[in-house]
């Protein structure tokens, strides 16, 4: 992570085997990110062995769920990190494989890239309560980390923050992903929490072009009835380095679209 343009991508794979079968690796090779953070790997270590440890010349690091075919995050990096940290709470959510941090420390800078997969509460009350528990834990963790180093969290947050972040906001106010409590948490994180929503820093008013997820039901993708659920959340110093952002929709690797930001470090 030297003094040049650093291309960082985030993508919820909805299964690494599925996404790669749809041309993901060729796209990574073509776009040549320095780092790609992935969520919902949906694989175990034996599934990754001899196939997914590297993609398009990037080396993969992972935090996988105990449960088969569930959750899991990873980061593919062109540069070797100085430290790899898998997990953050030591309990419930670490068993679900939701947090991976790669540290790229030098004598003059301490920087981290984090891939994080927030729980979805859409399956029912039990998972919504788990989502709130996660929010209660990840907030102080990021606050503490912010006192020690600069970082960028690439994440499927599973929250659309504001009305411009989803197509049908009026009819979704009682649905997980756009509940008042979830949105208030995002407001807190981006307010007193001091983190920056990099996409919104660069495109403060964009609506239709901002979506990164579409339901598989109906014609949601074709009609662009989407949600903005995928974020780059950065400390102010690194957010200030963001030059351009792109959400790639020409090919469909999963129900999410990759979001890429160029940072001038």
Features:
alpha+beta; 15 strands; 7-stranded mixed beta sheet; 23% helix; 265 residues; 6-stranded mixed beta sheet
The residue-averaged pLDDT reads: 97
Largest sheet: 7 strands, mixed
Count of alpha/pi helices: 7
| Helical coverage, percent range | 10-25%
| Helical/strand content category | alpha+beta
Strand content: 25-35%
Strand arrangement in the largest pleated sheet: 3-4-5-2-1-15-14
Radius of gyration based on Cα positions: 17 Å
Shape: globular
Runs in which pLDDT lies below 50 for 5 or more consecutive residues are none
Q: Ends: how far apart?
A: 7 Å
Order of H and E elements? EHHEHEEEEEEHEHEHEEEHEE
Total beta-strand segments: 15
What do these coordinates show?
The protein is of the alpha+beta class and 265 residues long. It is 23% helix and 28% strand. The protein contains 7 helices and 15 strands. Strands 3-4-5-2-1-15-14 form a 7-stranded mixed β-sheet. Strands 6-7-8-9-13-10 form a 6-stranded mixed β-sheet. Strand 3 and strand 4 (58-63) form a beta hairpin. The longest helix has 22 residues, at 125-146. It is globular and about 50 Å long. The model has no long low-confidence stretch (mean pLDDT 97).
Quick synopsis:
The protein is α+β, with helices and mostly antiparallel strands and 265 residues long. It is built from seven helices and 15 strands.
Write the layout of secondary structure elements.
Elements: E1 5-12, H1 16-21, H2 24-31, E2 35-39, H3 45-48, E3 54-55, E4 58-63, E5 73-77, E6 83-86, E7 99-105, E8 110-117, H4 125-146, E9 150-156, H5 180-190, E10 196-197, H6 198-202, E11 213-214, E12 226-227, E13 230-234, H7 236-239, E14 242-247, E15 259-264
Parallel strand pairs: 1-2, 8-9
Antiparallel strand pairs: 1-15, 2-5, 3-4, 4-5, 6-7, 7-8, 9-13, 10-13, 11-12, 14-15
